[in-house]
Amino acid sequence: MKTVLKHIFQHKRVYAKLPFFDFLRDDDLSPRERLAFFPCMASFILSFGDLNRLVLRVEPTDDPWQKMINAHTYEDDHHWPWYLEDFTKLGHDDVKRPPGDTLRFLYSDATIQNRLLAHRLAHLVWGAEPVVRLAIIEAIEETGQVLFALTSSIAAQYQHDTGTELRYCGEYHFNLESGHAMNNDHAEMAGIVLTPAQQQDAVQRVDQVFEWFALWTHELLAYAQAQSRAAQPACEMAA
Fold first, then answer.
1. Of 69, 92, 142, 155, whose Cβ has the fewest other Cβ atoms within 10 Å?
2. Taking a C-beta distance cutoff of 8 angstroms, is the pair 60, 141 a contact?
């Protein structure tokens, strides 16, 4: 597994340089502008609890790796209410629209990658044995580390400007993610001995995780930029 973990961290370094994360690092933009992607990610974030409860978790089990996975799912299956909390705090509940319009948005071309991501990950997990699923989870965790390290800084600035704490975007969530990362068992994972076939399978599945999350980030960036373009005429008129 040590080779697989090294492969994951190599992917992570490349992933962190994607255009979406450069956008989040852009201090010329306000916190609200950098968080404009937030509504676009709803489908995936709200599905992530189900991914943990209904796909990754298998109970009862005698498999030691599956037990490790199960413990992890209990850490990660309840974060989506914080997303809805921040959704409200960022003012998105103030935009009144018919329920049909909300459904059309959630199932529009603008959110295809968000809808597909949970399905793709479920397919990837169901096709893997438990010890390989550990590698899939670790890859997912590392994508989250990249995102929340950046949003936590943005959320801190947002709280400074507005007095409003964002728990999903902010330090509250990021500290939990950093604290439990596979139950802090990287050392134990590195000591897992994989067969050549398991190692090859894990590497291939990790590649897919990062490929799909990259597509996800491109969609989030496109949505945020579209919101900026839509707001521009109003700003010009106000000026």
1. 92
2. no
> Residues 168, 83: contact at Cβ < 8 Å?
yes
Whether the model pTM is above 0.90:
yes
| Contact predicate 56/125, CB 8 Å | yes
What letter would DSSP give residue 163? S
DSSP H helices in 127-170: 130-162
Buried-state track 127-145, b at ≥16 Cβ within 10 A, e below 16? ebebbbbbbbbbbbbbbbb
Residue of 141, 166, 165 lying closest to 8 (CA atoms) = 141
How many angstroms separate the CA atoms of 79 and 75, rounded?
Answer: 9
Query: Over the chain (239 residues), what is each successive 10-residue block's mean pLDDT?
Result: 97 98 97 97 96 97 96 94 97 92 95 97 98 97 96 98 97 80 69 97 98 98 93 51
Are 97 and 31 contacting, i.e. CB atoms less than 8 angstroms apart?
no
Residue from 42, 164, 155, 48 nearest 106 by CA: 42
CB atoms within 10 A of CB 162: 13
Q: Which two tokens stand for residue 62?
A: 């005698």
Q: Could you tell me which residues come within 8 angstroms of residue 207 by beta carbon, excluding any fewer than 6 positions away? A: 11
